[in-house]
Amino acid sequence: VPAGLAAATGGIGGLWATADVNTAGKTRFVNRLAVPPLAPSRRDRSGRRVYDLRAAVGSRRFRSGRATVTWGVNGDYLGPTLRAARGEKVLVNVRNELGEPTTMHWHGMHLPAAMDGGPHQMIEPGAAWSPTWTIDQPAATLWYHPHPHARTALHVYRGLAGLFIVDDPKAGTLGLPSRYGVDDVPVIVQDKKFTDTDQFSAERPMMGGTGILGDAILVNGTLAPFHEVTTQRTRLRLLNASTARVYDFGFSDDRPFALVGTDGGLLPAPFHTTRVQLSPGERAEIVVTLRPTERVTLRSYPPDLGTDLWNSRFTGGDDTLDILELCAGHVLGSSPALPGVLAERPDLETAGAVTRSFELGGHRINGRRMDMSRIDFAVAKDTTEIWQITNCGNTPHNFHVHDVQFQVLSVGGADPTPELSGWKDTVYVPPNAPVRIAVRFKDYTDPAVPYMYHCHLLYHEDQRMMGQFTVTDRGDAPKTSPSHGHHG
Ligand code: C2O
Ligand code: CU
Protein backbone atom coordinates (compact mmCIF):
# COMPACT_ATOMS: atom_id res chain seq x y z
CA VAL A 1 0.00 0.00 0.00
CA PRO A 2 1.51 3.35 -0.97
CA ALA A 3 2.27 5.56 1.99
CA GLY A 4 -0.39 8.11 1.11
CA LEU A 5 -3.16 5.56 0.96
CA ALA A 6 -2.46 4.02 4.34
CA ALA A 7 -4.18 6.86 6.12
CA ALA A 8 -7.16 7.10 3.85
CA THR A 9 -9.47 7.18 6.82
CA GLY A 10 -7.76 10.32 8.12
CA GLY A 11 -7.56 11.68 11.59
CA ILE A 12 -5.80 8.62 12.99
CA GLY A 13 -2.36 10.12 13.01
CA GLY A 14 -3.16 12.50 15.82
CA LEU A 15 -5.93 14.69 17.06
CA TRP A 16 -4.97 18.22 17.83
CA ALA A 17 -6.49 21.30 19.27
CA THR A 18 -6.58 24.11 16.77
CA ALA A 19 -5.07 26.87 18.87
CA ASP A 20 -2.43 27.78 16.34
CA VAL A 21 -3.57 25.71 13.45
CA ASN A 22 -3.29 27.38 10.09
CA THR A 23 -1.70 30.59 11.29
CA ALA A 24 1.21 30.86 8.90
CA GLY A 25 4.40 29.47 10.35
CA LYS A 26 2.77 28.23 13.56
CA THR A 27 1.11 25.06 12.44
CA ARG A 28 2.37 21.77 13.77
CA PHE A 29 1.66 19.38 10.93
CA VAL A 30 0.85 16.32 12.95
CA ASN A 31 -1.68 14.50 10.81
CA ARG A 32 -0.81 12.42 7.80
CA LEU A 33 -2.75 13.72 4.81
CA ALA A 34 -5.73 11.48 4.05
CA VAL A 35 -6.00 10.57 0.40
CA PRO A 36 -9.54 9.89 -0.81
CA PRO A 37 -9.70 6.26 -1.93
CA LEU A 38 -10.28 5.53 -5.60
CA ALA A 39 -13.92 4.52 -6.07
CA PRO A 40 -14.18 0.85 -7.00
CA SER A 41 -15.96 0.20 -10.28
CA ARG A 42 -17.17 -2.76 -12.29
CA ARG A 43 -18.20 -3.35 -15.89
CA ASP A 44 -21.81 -4.07 -16.66
CA ARG A 45 -22.98 -6.22 -19.57
CA SER A 46 -22.99 -3.33 -21.99
CA GLY A 47 -19.42 -2.43 -21.08
CA ARG A 48 -20.20 0.58 -18.93
CA ARG A 49 -17.99 1.37 -15.96
CA VAL A 50 -20.33 1.39 -12.95
CA TYR A 51 -19.74 3.11 -9.59
CA ASP A 52 -21.87 3.07 -6.45
CA LEU A 53 -22.09 6.19 -4.33
CA ARG A 54 -24.07 6.58 -1.15
CA ALA A 55 -24.53 9.93 0.56
CA ALA A 56 -25.17 9.58 4.28
CA VAL A 57 -24.71 11.19 7.68
CA GLY A 58 -21.54 10.31 9.58
CA SER A 59 -19.23 11.66 12.21
CA ARG A 60 -15.52 12.21 12.47
CA ARG A 61 -13.02 13.46 15.01
CA PHE A 62 -11.11 16.15 13.16
CA ARG A 63 -9.32 17.34 16.32
CA SER A 64 -9.19 16.71 20.02
CA GLY A 65 -12.61 17.00 21.56
CA ARG A 66 -15.84 15.61 20.31
CA ALA A 67 -16.63 14.03 17.01
CA THR A 68 -18.15 16.36 14.44
CA VAL A 69 -21.41 15.42 12.75
CA THR A 70 -20.62 15.24 9.05
CA TRP A 71 -22.02 14.19 5.72
CA GLY A 72 -20.03 12.02 3.37
CA VAL A 73 -20.12 9.83 0.29
CA ASN A 74 -19.23 6.18 1.00
CA GLY A 75 -17.71 7.37 4.27
CA ASP A 76 -17.93 10.02 6.94
CA TYR A 77 -16.55 13.02 5.12
CA LEU A 78 -15.99 13.86 1.42
CA GLY A 79 -16.17 11.02 -1.10
CA PRO A 80 -14.00 8.66 -3.12
CA THR A 81 -12.20 9.76 -6.27
CA LEU A 82 -13.95 8.61 -9.42
CA ARG A 83 -11.63 7.94 -12.31
CA ALA A 84 -12.50 7.14 -15.91
CA ALA A 85 -10.88 7.46 -19.31
CA ARG A 86 -11.95 9.51 -22.27
CA GLY A 87 -14.22 7.43 -24.48
CA GLU A 88 -15.51 5.27 -21.64
CA LYS A 89 -19.18 5.00 -20.87
CA VAL A 90 -19.89 5.43 -17.17
CA LEU A 91 -22.89 4.89 -14.93
CA VAL A 92 -23.01 6.20 -11.37
CA ASN A 93 -25.59 4.93 -8.90
CA VAL A 94 -26.13 7.70 -6.37
CA ARG A 95 -28.14 6.66 -3.32
CA ASN A 96 -29.44 9.36 -0.97
CA GLU A 97 -29.54 8.32 2.69
CA LEU A 98 -29.34 11.83 4.11
CA GLY A 99 -32.93 12.22 5.18
CA GLU A 100 -33.43 15.21 2.89
CA PRO A 101 -33.42 15.68 -0.87
CA THR A 102 -30.14 16.34 -2.61
CA THR A 103 -28.54 16.02 -6.06
CA MET A 104 -25.10 15.07 -7.40
CA HIS A 105 -23.55 17.36 -9.99
CA TRP A 106 -20.51 16.50 -12.13
CA HIS A 107 -18.70 19.82 -12.13
CA GLY A 108 -16.77 20.44 -15.36
CA MET A 109 -18.21 17.46 -17.20
CA HIS A 110 -19.57 17.62 -20.74
CA LEU A 111 -22.75 15.53 -20.62
CA PRO A 112 -26.49 15.61 -21.37
CA ALA A 113 -28.41 18.06 -19.18
CA ALA A 114 -30.59 15.31 -17.73
CA MET A 115 -27.42 13.63 -16.36
CA ASP A 116 -25.89 16.84 -15.01
CA GLY A 117 -27.18 16.58 -11.45
CA GLY A 118 -28.36 20.17 -11.19
CA PRO A 119 -31.41 21.29 -9.19
CA HIS A 120 -33.80 19.58 -11.62
CA GLN A 121 -32.40 16.12 -10.92
CA MET A 122 -33.40 15.83 -7.27
CA ILE A 123 -32.85 12.57 -5.44
CA GLU A 124 -35.45 12.07 -2.73
CA PRO A 125 -34.43 10.59 0.63
CA GLY A 126 -34.14 6.82 0.30
CA ALA A 127 -34.07 7.01 -3.49
CA ALA A 128 -31.29 6.49 -6.00
CA TRP A 129 -30.42 8.20 -9.28
CA SER A 130 -28.32 6.57 -11.98
CA PRO A 131 -27.00 8.95 -14.63
CA THR A 132 -24.99 7.51 -17.50
CA TRP A 133 -22.89 9.22 -20.16
CA THR A 134 -19.77 8.85 -22.29
CA ILE A 135 -16.64 10.67 -21.18
CA ASP A 136 -15.84 12.99 -24.06
CA GLN A 137 -13.18 15.52 -23.02
CA PRO A 138 -9.45 15.78 -22.34
CA ALA A 139 -7.71 14.57 -19.20
CA ALA A 140 -8.67 16.84 -16.30
CA THR A 141 -9.34 17.15 -12.60
CA LEU A 142 -13.11 17.54 -12.28
CA TRP A 143 -15.21 17.18 -9.15
CA TYR A 144 -18.67 16.31 -7.90
CA HIS A 145 -20.92 17.88 -5.30
CA PRO A 146 -24.64 18.34 -4.58
CA HIS A 147 -26.57 21.15 -6.26
CA PRO A 148 -30.01 21.29 -4.58
CA HIS A 149 -31.91 24.53 -5.11
CA ALA A 150 -30.84 27.09 -2.47
CA ARG A 151 -29.17 24.39 -0.30
CA THR A 152 -25.86 23.79 -2.07
CA ALA A 153 -23.61 25.62 0.40
CA LEU A 154 -24.93 23.59 3.30
CA HIS A 155 -24.60 20.23 1.56
CA VAL A 156 -21.05 20.88 0.40
CA TYR A 157 -20.00 22.44 3.72
CA ARG A 158 -21.19 19.40 5.63
CA GLY A 159 -18.89 17.26 3.51
CA LEU A 160 -20.40 16.13 0.23
CA ALA A 161 -17.73 16.53 -2.46
CA GLY A 162 -15.14 14.46 -4.27
CA LEU A 163 -12.85 14.41 -7.28
CA PHE A 164 -13.62 12.99 -10.71
CA ILE A 165 -10.37 12.49 -12.59
CA VAL A 166 -10.59 12.10 -16.35
CA ASP A 167 -7.68 10.29 -18.01
CA ASP A 168 -6.79 10.49 -21.64
CA PRO A 169 -5.16 7.24 -22.69
CA LYS A 170 -3.98 8.81 -25.97
CA ALA A 171 -2.12 11.59 -24.23
CA GLY A 172 -0.76 9.16 -21.63
CA THR A 173 0.93 10.74 -18.66
CA LEU A 174 3.38 12.88 -20.66
CA GLY A 175 5.89 12.11 -17.95
CA LEU A 176 3.85 13.98 -15.35
CA PRO A 177 3.89 12.40 -11.89
CA SER A 178 0.95 10.02 -11.93
CA ARG A 179 1.04 7.55 -9.06
CA TYR A 180 -2.17 8.34 -7.24
CA GLY A 181 -1.65 9.25 -3.61
CA VAL A 182 2.12 8.98 -3.95
CA ASP A 183 3.38 11.62 -6.37
CA ASP A 184 -0.02 12.57 -7.84
CA VAL A 185 -1.94 13.85 -4.86
CA PRO A 186 -5.45 15.29 -4.49
CA VAL A 187 -5.51 18.46 -2.37
CA ILE A 188 -9.14 19.35 -1.60
CA VAL A 189 -9.02 22.57 0.39
CA GLN A 190 -11.87 23.73 2.63
CA ASP A 191 -12.10 26.25 5.44
CA LYS A 192 -14.21 25.44 8.48
CA LYS A 193 -15.39 27.09 11.61
CA PHE A 194 -15.77 24.78 14.59
CA THR A 195 -18.10 25.52 17.52
CA ASP A 196 -16.97 25.00 21.12
CA THR A 197 -18.58 21.60 20.90
CA ASP A 198 -16.50 20.76 17.81
CA GLN A 199 -19.32 20.98 15.31
CA PHE A 200 -19.23 22.75 11.92
CA SER A 201 -20.64 26.10 12.88
CA ALA A 202 -22.62 28.93 11.45
CA GLU A 203 -24.40 27.36 8.60
CA ARG A 204 -25.43 30.79 7.54
CA PRO A 205 -23.77 33.74 5.88
CA MET A 206 -21.04 35.69 7.57
CA MET A 207 -18.64 38.43 6.66
CA GLY A 208 -21.09 40.77 5.05
CA GLY A 209 -22.60 38.47 2.53
CA THR A 210 -19.90 36.24 1.11
CA GLY A 211 -20.74 33.12 3.05
CA ILE A 212 -18.91 31.16 5.71
CA LEU A 213 -15.22 31.93 6.15
CA GLY A 214 -13.55 29.44 8.46
CA ASP A 215 -10.27 29.72 10.30
CA ALA A 216 -9.44 26.00 10.29
CA ILE A 217 -8.27 24.50 7.02
CA LEU A 218 -9.07 20.91 6.11
CA VAL A 219 -7.23 19.23 3.27
CA ASN A 220 -8.98 16.06 2.12
CA GLY A 221 -10.68 16.28 5.52
CA THR A 222 -7.36 16.36 7.43
CA LEU A 223 -6.47 19.18 9.79
CA ALA A 224 -2.80 20.27 9.89
CA PRO A 225 -1.70 17.68 7.35
CA PHE A 226 1.70 16.55 6.12
CA HIS A 227 2.48 14.48 3.06
CA GLU A 228 5.64 12.40 2.75
CA VAL A 229 7.33 13.03 -0.55
CA THR A 230 9.21 10.08 -2.03
CA THR A 231 10.03 11.34 -5.53
CA GLN A 232 11.81 14.40 -6.93
CA ARG A 233 8.61 15.84 -8.36
CA THR A 234 5.12 15.82 -6.96
CA ARG A 235 1.92 16.74 -8.74
CA LEU A 236 -0.74 18.36 -6.54
CA ARG A 237 -4.31 18.49 -7.83
CA LEU A 238 -5.64 21.55 -6.01
CA LEU A 239 -9.38 21.99 -5.66
CA ASN A 240 -10.97 24.93 -3.89
CA ALA A 241 -14.04 23.20 -2.45
CA SER A 242 -14.76 26.00 -0.01
CA THR A 243 -17.95 27.97 0.32
CA ALA A 244 -16.53 31.43 -0.21
CA ARG A 245 -12.81 31.73 0.46
CA VAL A 246 -10.40 32.54 -2.36
CA TYR A 247 -6.90 31.08 -1.93
CA ASP A 248 -3.66 32.28 -3.46
CA PHE A 249 -1.48 29.19 -3.19
CA GLY A 250 2.30 29.32 -2.98
CA PHE A 251 5.16 27.82 -0.96
CA SER A 252 6.60 29.16 2.29
CA ASP A 253 10.04 29.72 0.71
CA ASP A 254 8.52 31.19 -2.46
CA ARG A 255 9.99 28.42 -4.56
CA PRO A 256 8.71 28.35 -8.12
CA PHE A 257 6.51 25.49 -9.25
CA ALA A 258 5.04 24.51 -12.59
CA LEU A 259 1.36 25.11 -13.19
CA VAL A 260 0.46 22.33 -15.62
CA GLY A 261 -3.32 22.21 -15.62
CA THR A 262 -6.45 24.21 -14.88
CA ASP A 263 -10.16 23.34 -14.62
CA GLY A 264 -10.61 21.59 -17.94
CA GLY A 265 -7.22 19.99 -18.51
CA LEU A 266 -3.57 20.57 -19.18
CA LEU A 267 -2.21 23.97 -20.14
CA PRO A 268 -0.53 24.37 -23.55
CA ALA A 269 2.82 24.46 -21.70
CA PRO A 270 3.99 24.39 -18.08
CA PHE A 271 3.90 27.88 -16.59
CA HIS A 272 6.59 28.50 -13.98
CA THR A 273 5.28 30.71 -11.22
CA THR A 274 5.21 31.16 -7.45
CA ARG A 275 1.45 31.66 -6.95
CA VAL A 276 -1.82 30.33 -8.24
CA GLN A 277 -5.11 31.85 -7.15
CA LEU A 278 -8.27 29.74 -6.99
CA SER A 279 -11.79 30.92 -6.25
CA PRO A 280 -14.43 28.41 -5.14
CA GLY A 281 -14.88 25.60 -7.65
CA GLU A 282 -11.63 26.20 -9.54
CA ARG A 283 -8.84 23.63 -9.85
CA ALA A 284 -5.13 23.75 -10.64
CA GLU A 285 -2.59 21.01 -11.18
CA ILE A 286 0.89 22.00 -10.10
CA VAL A 287 4.22 20.15 -10.09
CA VAL A 288 6.71 20.99 -7.37
CA THR A 289 10.30 19.77 -7.03
CA LEU A 290 11.86 18.89 -3.66
CA ARG A 291 15.40 17.92 -2.67
CA PRO A 292 16.01 15.07 -0.21
CA THR A 293 15.06 15.88 3.42
CA GLU A 294 13.50 19.24 2.49
CA ARG A 295 10.37 20.45 4.22
CA VAL A 296 8.22 23.12 2.68
CA THR A 297 4.75 24.40 3.45
CA LEU A 298 2.04 25.02 0.92
CA ARG A 299 0.35 28.23 2.05
CA SER A 300 -2.40 30.51 0.97
CA TYR A 301 -1.49 34.19 0.75
CA PRO A 302 -4.02 37.02 0.71
CA PRO A 303 -5.70 36.86 -2.70
CA ASP A 304 -6.00 39.71 -5.14
CA LEU A 305 -9.72 40.15 -5.46
CA GLY A 306 -9.47 43.34 -7.48
CA THR A 307 -11.20 45.37 -4.80
CA ASP A 308 -9.41 46.88 -1.84
CA LEU A 309 -12.62 47.53 -0.03
CA TRP A 310 -13.32 43.83 0.04
CA ASN A 311 -9.86 42.41 0.45
CA SER A 312 -9.66 42.86 4.20
CA ARG A 313 -13.33 42.34 4.94
CA PHE A 314 -13.48 39.27 2.80
CA THR A 315 -10.33 37.61 3.93
CA GLY A 316 -10.62 38.66 7.56
CA GLY A 317 -7.47 40.75 7.60
CA ASP A 318 -4.11 39.06 7.29
CA ASP A 319 -5.02 35.58 6.33
CA THR A 320 -1.84 33.92 5.26
CA LEU A 321 -2.77 30.35 6.04
CA ASP A 322 -0.79 27.14 6.33
CA ILE A 323 -2.32 24.47 4.14
CA LEU A 324 -0.10 21.39 3.84
CA GLU A 325 3.46 20.44 4.70
CA LEU A 326 5.51 18.45 2.22
CA CYS A 327 8.34 16.44 3.82
CA ALA A 328 10.89 14.82 1.57
CA GLY A 329 12.60 11.58 2.52
CA HIS A 330 16.36 10.93 2.52
CA VAL A 331 16.28 9.28 -0.88
CA LEU A 332 13.92 10.45 -3.61
CA GLY A 333 12.93 8.41 -6.62
CA SER A 334 13.77 10.14 -9.87
CA SER A 335 11.01 11.79 -11.88
CA PRO A 336 11.09 12.47 -15.61
CA ALA A 337 11.64 16.07 -16.73
CA LEU A 338 8.53 18.09 -17.47
CA PRO A 339 7.65 18.16 -21.16
CA GLY A 340 7.76 21.55 -22.90
CA VAL A 341 4.39 21.05 -24.55
CA LEU A 342 1.38 19.60 -22.74
CA ALA A 343 -1.72 20.22 -24.83
CA GLU A 344 -3.13 22.22 -27.69
CA ARG A 345 -3.97 25.82 -26.97
CA PRO A 346 -7.73 26.43 -26.97
CA ASP A 347 -8.49 28.24 -30.20
CA LEU A 348 -12.20 28.57 -30.76
CA GLU A 349 -13.31 30.27 -33.97
CA THR A 350 -15.30 33.31 -32.84
CA ALA A 351 -16.01 35.09 -36.13
CA GLY A 352 -19.73 35.78 -36.32
CA ALA A 353 -20.32 34.46 -32.80
CA VAL A 354 -23.44 35.49 -30.92
CA THR A 355 -22.48 37.73 -27.99
CA ARG A 356 -24.36 37.71 -24.70
CA SER A 357 -23.71 39.79 -21.67
CA PHE A 358 -24.10 38.88 -18.03
CA GLU A 359 -24.10 41.56 -15.36
CA LEU A 360 -23.40 40.39 -11.83
CA GLY A 361 -24.72 42.56 -9.04
CA GLY A 362 -26.93 42.43 -5.98
CA HIS A 363 -26.87 38.62 -5.96
CA ARG A 364 -28.53 38.74 -9.36
CA ILE A 365 -27.47 38.07 -12.92
CA ASN A 366 -28.87 40.62 -15.39
CA GLY A 367 -31.17 41.81 -12.63
CA ARG A 368 -32.78 38.43 -12.15
CA ARG A 369 -32.58 35.67 -9.60
CA MET A 370 -32.81 32.01 -10.45
CA ASP A 371 -36.31 30.82 -11.14
CA MET A 372 -36.54 27.06 -11.60
CA SER A 373 -39.39 27.53 -14.06
CA ARG A 374 -37.68 30.15 -16.24
CA ILE A 375 -35.20 29.23 -18.94
CA ASP A 376 -33.20 32.36 -19.58
CA PHE A 377 -32.12 31.58 -23.14
CA ALA A 378 -31.37 28.79 -25.58
CA VAL A 379 -28.12 28.32 -27.46
CA ALA A 380 -27.80 26.49 -30.74
CA LYS A 381 -25.80 23.29 -30.78
CA ASP A 382 -22.63 23.26 -32.81
CA THR A 383 -22.04 26.97 -32.32
CA THR A 384 -19.57 29.13 -30.45
CA GLU A 385 -20.76 32.14 -28.46
CA ILE A 386 -18.92 34.98 -26.77
CA TRP A 387 -20.10 35.69 -23.25
CA GLN A 388 -19.12 38.89 -21.51
CA ILE A 389 -19.40 38.78 -17.73
CA THR A 390 -19.22 42.02 -15.76
CA ASN A 391 -19.08 42.34 -11.99
CA CYS A 392 -20.92 45.62 -11.51
CA GLY A 393 -20.46 45.93 -7.74
CA ASN A 394 -17.50 45.56 -5.44
CA THR A 395 -18.31 42.14 -4.03
CA PRO A 396 -16.19 39.19 -5.14
CA HIS A 397 -17.96 36.86 -7.59
CA ASN A 398 -16.95 34.17 -9.98
CA PHE A 399 -18.81 32.59 -12.88
CA HIS A 400 -19.31 28.91 -13.65
CA VAL A 401 -20.99 27.37 -16.69
CA HIS A 402 -22.25 23.79 -16.74
CA ASP A 403 -21.64 21.35 -19.62
CA VAL A 404 -18.69 23.19 -21.16
CA GLN A 405 -15.06 24.13 -20.83
CA PHE A 406 -14.53 27.64 -22.14
CA GLN A 407 -11.64 29.75 -23.36
CA VAL A 408 -10.93 33.09 -21.66
CA LEU A 409 -10.51 35.78 -24.34
CA SER A 410 -9.78 38.77 -22.12
CA VAL A 411 -10.06 40.18 -18.61
CA GLY A 412 -10.63 43.92 -18.34
CA GLY A 413 -9.64 44.23 -22.00
CA ALA A 414 -6.24 42.60 -21.45
CA ASP A 415 -5.11 39.26 -22.80
CA PRO A 416 -5.57 36.37 -20.38
CA THR A 417 -2.63 35.56 -18.12
CA PRO A 418 -0.97 32.14 -18.59
CA GLU A 419 -3.08 30.65 -15.80
CA LEU A 420 -6.17 31.55 -17.81
CA SER A 421 -4.83 30.26 -21.10
CA GLY A 422 -6.18 26.71 -20.81
CA TRP A 423 -9.69 25.29 -20.58
CA LYS A 424 -11.79 26.71 -17.76
CA ASP A 425 -15.27 26.14 -16.39
CA THR A 426 -15.11 28.66 -13.54
CA VAL A 427 -13.44 32.05 -13.61
CA TYR A 428 -12.99 34.82 -11.05
CA VAL A 429 -14.67 38.05 -12.15
CA PRO A 430 -13.01 41.08 -10.57
CA PRO A 431 -15.17 44.15 -10.04
CA ASN A 432 -15.37 46.29 -13.16
CA ALA A 433 -13.01 44.21 -15.28
CA PRO A 434 -15.28 42.41 -17.72
CA VAL A 435 -14.30 38.83 -18.51
CA ARG A 436 -14.91 37.71 -22.08
CA ILE A 437 -15.06 34.01 -22.76
CA ALA A 438 -15.62 31.90 -25.86
CA VAL A 439 -17.93 28.94 -25.28
CA ARG A 440 -18.60 26.14 -27.71
CA PHE A 441 -21.83 24.15 -27.41
CA LYS A 442 -21.32 20.87 -29.14
CA ASP A 443 -24.23 18.50 -28.86
CA TYR A 444 -26.75 16.96 -26.42
CA THR A 445 -29.74 19.06 -27.36
CA ASP A 446 -32.71 19.00 -25.01
CA PRO A 447 -35.21 21.86 -25.15
CA ALA A 448 -36.80 20.76 -21.87
CA VAL A 449 -33.86 20.29 -19.51
CA PRO A 450 -31.60 23.26 -18.79
CA TYR A 451 -27.99 23.64 -17.72
CA MET A 452 -27.00 26.21 -15.10
CA TYR A 453 -24.64 29.18 -15.02
CA HIS A 454 -23.97 30.87 -11.72
CA CYS A 455 -21.64 32.43 -9.19
CA HIS A 456 -19.78 29.58 -7.42
CA LEU A 457 -19.48 31.42 -4.12
CA LEU A 458 -21.98 28.97 -2.72
CA TYR A 459 -23.83 31.48 -0.56
CA HIS A 460 -24.41 33.63 -3.65
CA GLU A 461 -25.47 30.59 -5.63
CA ASP A 462 -28.00 29.79 -2.91
CA GLN A 463 -29.18 33.41 -3.00
CA ARG A 464 -30.20 32.34 -6.53
CA MET A 465 -27.44 34.19 -8.36
CA MET A 466 -27.96 31.70 -11.14
CA GLY A 467 -29.64 31.26 -14.50
CA GLN A 468 -30.56 28.45 -16.87
CA PHE A 469 -29.97 27.79 -20.56
CA THR A 470 -30.84 24.99 -22.90
CA VAL A 471 -28.94 23.63 -25.88
CA THR A 472 -31.30 23.21 -28.82
CA ASP A 473 -31.04 22.66 -32.57
CA ARG A 474 -31.49 26.33 -33.45
CA GLY A 475 -31.13 28.37 -30.27
CA ASP A 476 -33.35 31.39 -29.60
CA ALA A 477 -35.25 32.94 -32.44
CA PRO A 478 -33.49 36.16 -33.47
CA LYS A 479 -34.73 39.12 -31.45
CA THR A 480 -37.03 41.33 -33.45
CA SER A 481 -37.61 44.26 -31.15
CA PRO A 482 -35.11 45.95 -28.88
CA SER A 483 -37.42 45.62 -25.90
CA HIS A 484 -37.66 41.90 -26.40
CA GLY A 485 -36.02 39.82 -23.75
CA HIS A 486 -36.10 42.40 -20.98
CA HIS A 487 -38.36 41.08 -18.30
CA GLY A 488 -38.01 42.41 -14.77
CU1 C2O B 1 -19.79 23.25 -9.01
CU2 C2O B 1 -23.27 24.58 -10.70
O1 C2O B 1 -21.60 23.88 -9.80
CU1 CU C 1 -20.95 35.79 -6.13
Automatic annotation (TrEMBL):
<feature type="domain" description="Plastocyanin-like">
    <location>
        <begin position="64"/>
        <end position="170"/>
    </location>
</feature>
<dbReference type="InterPro" id="IPR011706">
    <property type="entry name" value="Cu-oxidase_C"/>
</dbReference>
<dbReference type="InterPro" id="IPR011707">
    <property type="entry name" value="Cu-oxidase-like_N"/>
</dbReference>
<dbReference type="InterPro" id="IPR045087">
    <property type="entry name" value="Cu-oxidase_fam"/>
</dbReference>
<dbReference type="Pfam" id="PF00394">
    <property type="entry name" value="Cu-oxidase"/>
</dbReference>
<comment type="similarity">
    <text>Belongs to the multicopper oxidase family.</text>
</comment>
<dbReference type="Pfam" id="PF07732">
    <property type="entry name" value="Cu-oxidase_3"/>
</dbReference>
<feature type="domain" description="Plastocyanin-like">
    <location>
        <begin position="212"/>
        <end position="291"/>
    </location>
</feature>
<protein>
    <submittedName>
        <fullName>Multicopper oxidase domain-containing protein</fullName>
    </submittedName>
</protein>
<dbReference type="Pfam" id="PF07731">
    <property type="entry name" value="Cu-oxidase_2"/>
</dbReference>
<feature type="domain" description="Plastocyanin-like">
    <location>
        <begin position="358"/>
        <end position="473"/>
    </location>
</feature>
<dbReference type="InterPro" id="IPR001117">
    <property type="entry name" value="Cu-oxidase_2nd"/>
</dbReference>
<dbReference type="InterPro" id="IPR008972">
    <property type="entry name" value="Cupredoxin"/>
</dbReference>
<dbReference type="InterPro" id="IPR006311">
    <property type="entry name" value="TAT_signal"/>
</dbReference>
